[in-house]
Amino acid sequence: MHHKRLIWQLYPSQLLITLAALLAFTWYGTSSIRSFQLSETAIGLEARAHLVASSVLGYLEHDDLKGLEAFCREAGKKSLTRLTVIAPDGKILADSDEDPARMENHNDRPEIIAAFAGKIVPTLRFSQTLQQNLMYMAIPLDGHGNRKDVLRVAIPVTTIDKALSAIYQKILWGCLVVAVIAALAAWFIARRISKPLEQMKLGAERFAMGDFAGRMQAEGAEEVAGLARALNEMAVQLDGRIQTIVRQHSQLQAVFASMVEGVITVDTEERVLDVNQSGAQLLNVDPEKIRGKSILLAVRNTHLQNFVKNALASASPMEGEFSSRMGADGQEKYFYAHGARLQDSQGHITGALIVINDVTSLRRLESMRRDFVANVSHELKTPITSIEGFAETLLDGALDEPEDARRFVEIIGKQAARLHAIVEDLLALSRVEQEAKREEIVLQELPIAEVLQSAIQTCSSRAEKENVSISLACAPTITAGINPALFEQAVVNLLDNAVKYSGKGSEIKVEAEIKAGEVLIRVCDNGVGIASQDIFRIFERFYRVDKARSAKLGGTGLGLSIVKHIVQAHHGRVSVESSPGKGSIFTIHLPVRS
């Protein structure tokens, strides 16, 4: 709907009222003046008629029609009045302007009829004889025997019209002047009324845009000034309330954004209303793209969708767990969720709040602990069972057979050595963890080439037995913050694994370089490689990719776990690139000290 401005509603109506009043006044004034002029003219005509009535009666009593006609012409010329004497039968006896013989019977003229009836009635009429407007008035002439003649007098109203026209022009100009003054006054009054309202409109628009600094001027009529004061008071209250809401919203958003837990709010139709950054990262979604979508389309997880549906249907808070495969690697993640319905002040259900925790690490840790218990039990059970079995065999009589006894004792010694190695590796691993936790490991900025060369020499004898060559590519200027003994042990463990799992005649490369703010030490082999599903678990304690092959090659299953903890003690990390049948690349990442 198109709305007119207030000034264009006030001003035209005021101007229209003023013009209508002027027109009414002009019409009434001109009508009154014309009526007054005609009335005065009629009075004058009647007076003239009575002045000449006695003379006319004298001529009629003597039947002197020629003298009467001459008198009428003389008197009419002097008084500028047309004089006409009419007989009772309507015949013209004398006329001051025309020949009576040529004039038609006047018995039907209104003023004549009125005069015969004894009345004096002025009449305005166009004269066909004189071809102009005249005012006629007739008076009866009594005293001429039994006859009752009529004397009619008439004057042109042209002079009256000219006089009235001059008066009308003056009135018109006066009305125009009054109309202009009234238009200006109406414009001024309309602006005086509308301007404060326009200012209030602009002020209200500023308030709507959140600018509460300015205030409206309380001017104009009391109603308008009162409205301005009310709007100013409203602005003060709105400013305070909006600041409170913004402050509370900012605090809520800060809490919402800083929460480690993922938080999702949905409406009663299971559409996503909002999700915090942690929730978006946990579920691997874009917060802006999923708002307004159903939870199933947004996350594509039926378990979460069922949990949301149950949370909306349940009157009490709910807890549950679900899993999801996400990310480029397709690893399964585990989530623990808390859900509760949202209600407004009237108790109506508006949606649900879902809080999600990533318990993948906890589940993996529990799995690692179970595997560790199973693996360490298996690793210890095998040598203990072997020692126990051969000891019983010796006690049962094998001691009497020197060759068997010696072989059994050698097996017992070998298994005891394996137990010793497991215990030593466990103690070493525990020692590294404890020292790293207490920051007792001293790191020195040293060249790493010497340490790498020493590690290669340590593994050279076994490499020669397997016909495996080890090469080193490291600039002598490359340094890093290391503990030489621990760092050498980590490299030795990587080289030992590379020798074990590389075929005869293979080549192992040890490379070092500085790249992207890190010192990178790579141990590359072309051995059996590692499957992708095992890569993220190979640093677990006692975890073996190929248990049969690992048991045959020996080892405690703790070597890579020791490497991981030693590198972490050096504030670094270990990464692996491997494919089955194509070998493996173990990379130690150490920070470059500034």
Measured by DSSP, the beta-strand proportion falls in: 15-25%
Q: What does the average pLDDT come to?
A: 79
Radius of gyration computed on alpha carbons: 63 Å
The CATH superfamily of the largest domain is identified as: PAS domain
Estimated structural class: alpha+beta
Walk me through this protein's architecture.
The model is unreliable at 547-553 (pLDDT under 50). This protein has helices spanning 7-61, 65-79, 110-116, 158-208, 222-258, 277-283, 287-290, 295-299, 302-313, 360-395, 402-437, 448-465, 484-501, 532-535, 547-553, 559-569; strands spanning 82-86, 92-95, 123-127, 132-144, 147-156, 262-266, 272-275, 318-326, 331-343, 349-358, 444-447, 469-473, 479-482, 507-515, 518-525, 573-579, 583-591. It has 5 domains: 8-163, Beta-Lactamase; 210-258; 260-358, PAS domain (Beta-Lactamase), CATH 3.30.450.20; 364-434, Helix Hairpins; 443-591, Heat Shock Protein 90 (2-Layer Sandwich). A 5-stranded antiparallel β-sheet has the order 2-1-5-4-3. The protein has a 5-stranded antiparallel β-sheet with strand order 7-6-10-9-8, with helices on both faces. With 594 residues, the chain is of the alpha+beta class. It is rod-shaped, with a radius of gyration of 63 Å.
